[in-house]
Structures are given as C-alpha cells and as structure tokens.
Write a structure and sequence with these properties.
440 residues; alpha/beta; Rossmann fold; N-(1-d-carboxylethyl)-l-norvaline Dehydrogenase, domain 2; 3 domains; 6-stranded parallel sheet; 19 helices; elongated; binds uridine-5'-diphosphate-xylopyranose; UDP-glucose 6-dehydrogenase
C-alpha cells in the first residue's frame, strides 16, 4: 500500500511511522520545511517514547520518507490521510477546520487514479461529507471515496496504542475504500483486533463520544474524591471496587487535579457544541466541562489552604508541569491554572519537570526552573506534586523532608503512601483519602 500522511504533527507522525512499521510505503508531508528537514535528520518535533527509533528504522528501510511536496506524495497513493491540526476555534468551542479543508483542496488537485481520502484528525460530525464536497468542487473528475478513521492513541504510549489498539474504527460507504483500509490495517486483523466498519458520521461521532465518556469518568472520580475527603472514605478503594464491576471497568478512575491535554478539553467542547446545534444537548458533558474547569482553580485554593491560607513570600517547589507523565505537552495542563494562582497569592515557584520545561517556559513566567526534583525541593517552604512522573515515585520521603524547610506537601496525584509521608515528618495532603496523623 502507498500512503500519504498530510500533517506530520503528533497524530500524523505516529500514525505514519506505525503504518510504515506495518510494511506500507509512507510519505509524511508537512508545510513546515524546518520540521521536515529535522525529521529527515531523525529529530522528533515531539516527545514520544520510542518514536525516534521507529522512525529511524523505517526510514532506513526506505518505507518512510518526509517531504513538503504534497502533490508528489498524493500522486499514486492508495490512501491519503488528513492528520492536520483541528484546534478549538476561539469563542465558540467548535473545532477549527480551516486546515482540514485547505488540505482537502490541495489533495484534490493532486489526485491521480482512485484514492481514499481519510480524515484522521478529530473532526466534527459531518466533516467527511464536507471534505468530499470540497474535493468534488475542486476536481469534478476525481475518482475517490472519503473515509473517517479516528485515532485513539494516548500521548506517552502512542506507539503501543497504535500497534495494539482496543479497536480500529473505519467509517466509509465506498466498497473500494473498505477494501483498501482493511488492507492498510491487515496486520491488526491478523492479531485479532476488533475492526468496526461503519458510516462516516458514526465514525466521527465515536471519537467524540469516547473522549467525552472518559473525561466524564475522570471527573466522576474527582467528585467522588471530594466526597471521600468529607466523610473519611478512601477514593482508591472506591475506584478499585467499582472498577471491578465489568460494566464499569478499572481504567480512568484515578483522581487528580482535573484532566487536561490536547484532546479531552477540545473534544468535549466540540461535542457539546455539535450536540447543541443538532438539538440533542449533552447535559452530562456540559457539566463535566464546568466541573473540570472549576477543579483546577480549587486545586490552587487547596494548596494555599495547606499553607494555612498564606503563601505570600513563600517558595513552593512544584514537581511536574506537563498535563500528565511521559509527555512534554502543556496544553490545558492543570499547572497553567495552579502555578499562576499561587504566584498571584504571592508565592515564588521553583519547578521541575523531566520533559516539559521548554514548553513551560513559553507559557509560564517568573519561574525558577530546577535541574532535578531534589534540586527543586532544596530550601523551599513546601511542595506540590502536579504530574505523576515515574521518577517522582522513587523519591525518598525522608530526603525530601530534609531538603524542604517546611513540612507541607500537597500531592495532587496521590503518588505517595500517606503513612510514609507522615512518618517522614510531612503535613501531607492528598486527594480523596484519609491521611493518618496529618491534617489532610
Ligand atoms: C486521550 C485519549 O485517551 C486518547 O484515546 C485520545 O486519542 C486523545 O486523548 P491523552 O490526552 O494523551 O489521550 O491522555 P490520557 O492518558 O487519556 O489522559 C487524559 C487526561 O485525563 C490527563 O489529564 C490525565 O491526567 C487525566 N486522567 C486520566 C486522570 O486524571 N485520571 C485517570 O484515571 C486517567
């Protein structure tokens, strides 16, 4: 199979590299010439474990290449995937489809022979049909079908998710398109991964419904954690026990400072917009968005309360800035709300993140960046854990306590055992669980 991947950002690059690993011939396209040059030198524009090795291997095998020349990549391709960005449009929360339609037009001009044009970016219901219209208007003679093939990969484990997905969703009406996309995903048929073939609109909706449901699950457990704190219950025991019910499932029940990232905030917003316009409002998800936004501010209030209501002039060590571990992504990270709120209240911030400090520098100001976790803690008045990086799990509570001048530790990811932290002399605050012998 010959595949053109339009857009070499997160989804495009990971998908392109994985398709080449399946044995297909893949050309990744991007308008950003600098990015293409760097990719040719095997320099990744994003932090994703294992991606550089996968790209290097398949580029060396001649199955994966990079170009700014969209027409050359589309010429003769069996399938062209659109994986350009779909940011939230300012003001109305709708996904901004400017880049998708611009790509569709350019692809249309370059089509030769029968081609499936597939949207891989997360796009609102109805976009596939509009892409087909754009192509037909630009090139009335084009021989093509459109398809929707949403991506469910998680940052930080994207390659594993792509190679071993829970399911693949393909939305298309064209018989030839079904055949080509089945061939593209043949290696997954062989390992018996479920492949759902459905209508274009259904495939588009599946992606939004999946992310909205997961965001709802996280938000549910966060609210249950609040209740646990009030009644002296343990949220992890609640999560584990409800999760053992197969109808609920164990994942996405870990409480925290609120969800962030490139998908949940954007997709939940687009979902409720589409739903409102279609006259089928999604009240649950509207509430989820509101509760999650409020939670980020509440987290800052919680930190201030842990310092007895006054952080003015205090130095607070912040461990982790990325929206979750194993990524340098800062988009909608809780740190973007919590850190400025603490600064506003007069605190000085000393932060460390294993991967996201370069990104953080662009978005947060007046932060003293440390070279490691212990360095961030040294001499600070107290600490806040914002991202659950594995390397933070291994920190020694006694050593942390020695480095800090004060005893306050607010763990917004429940990384540590409360007993270990109290034993080390901390006033340890965590989410939704009783802390023996401590005010939290
Ligand atoms: C998500 C979806 O999982 C993926 O299928 C989709 O394609 C893109 O969006 P991602 O944004 O990379 O992936 O992160 P994910 O691991 O799903 O976490 C989303 C957010 O929820 C993060 O802020 C994370 O910290 C939070 N979360 C997740 C929790 O707070 N608790 C949990 O139990 C799980």
């Amino acid at each position: 199979m010959r595949i053109a991947m339009i857009g070499s950002g997160y989804v495009g690059l990971v998908s392109g590299a994985c398709f080449s690993e399946f044995g297909h011939d893949v050309v990744c396209v991007d308008k950003d010439a600098g990015r293409i040059e760097r990719l040719k030198r095997n320099e990744m524009p994003i932090y994703e474990p294992g991606l550089d090795a996968l790209v290097a291997k398949n580029a060396a095998a001649g199955r994966l290449s990079f170009t700014t020349d969209l027409a050359a990549a589309v010429d003769g391709a069996d399938a062209v995937f659109i994986a350009v960005g779909t940011p939230s449009r300012r003001g109305d929360g709708h996904a901004d489809l400017t880049y998708v339609f611009a790509a569709a037009e350019e692809i249309a001009r370059a089509l030769t022979g029968y081609t499936v044009v597939v949207t891989k970016s997360t796009v609102p219901v109805g976009t596939g049909r509009k892409v087909a219209e754009v192509i037909r208007q630009t090139r009335p003679d084009a021989d093509f079908d459109v398809a929707s093939n949403p991506e469910f990969l998680r940052e930080g484990s994207a390659i594993g998710d792509f190679m071993l997905p829970d399911r693949v969703v393909i939305g298309t009406e064209g018989e030839r398109a079904k055949k080509i996309l089945s061939d593209v995903y043949r290696p997954l048929y062989l390992i018996e991964r479920p492949i759902v073939i459905t209508a274009v609109e259904t495939a588009e909706l599946i992606k939004y419904a999946a992310n909205s449901f997961l965001a709802m699950k996280v938000t549910f457990i966060n609210e249950v954690a609040n209740l646990c704190e009030q009644v002296g219950a343990n949220v992890h025991d609640v999560a584990r026990s409800i999760g053992l019910d197969k109808r609920i499932g164990p994942k996405f029940l870990h409480p925290g400072p609120g969800y962030g990232g490139s998908c949940f905030p954007k997709d939940t917003l687009a979902f409720v917009q589409t739903a409102r316009e279609a006259g089928a409002p999604q009240h649950l998800i509207e509430a989820v968005i509101e509760v999650n936004e409020a939670r980020k501010t509440e987290m800052a209030d919680r930190v201030i309360a842990a310092f007895d209501g006054d952080v003015a002039g205090k130095t607070i060590a912040v461990l982790g800035l990325a929206f979750k571990q194993n990524t340098d992504d800062m988009r909608d990270s809780p740190s973007l709300t919590v850190v400025p709120a603490l600064q506003q209240a007069g605190a000085r911030i000393r932060a460390y993140d294993p991967a996201a400090m370069t990104e953080a520098r662009k978005l947060l100001t007046d932060i003293d960046y440390a070279t490691g976790a212990y360095e961030a803690l040294r001499g600070a008045d107290g600490a806040v854990m914002l991202t659950e990086w594995n390397e933070f799990r291994a920190l020694d509570p006694a050593r942390m306590r020695q480095l800090l001048t004060g005893p306050v530790f607010v763990d917004l990811r429940n990384v540590y055992k409360p007993a270990d932290m109290t034993e080390a002399g901390f006033r340890y605050h965590s989410i939704g669980r009783p802390v023996p012998g401590s005010a939290g």
